[in-house]
Amino acid sequence: MADHVDQVLAQWAVRRPDLDVSPMAVIGRLSRLSRLVDAELRRTFTAHGLDSASFDVLATLRRSDPPHSLTPAELMRSSMVTSGAITQRLDRLEARGLVSRSPSASDGRSVVVALTGAGRDLIDEALPDHVATEARLLAALTEGERDALAKVLGTLLESLGGEKGEKGEKSEKSRKDEKGGKA
Question: pTM of the entire structure?
Answer without folding.
Answer: 0.81
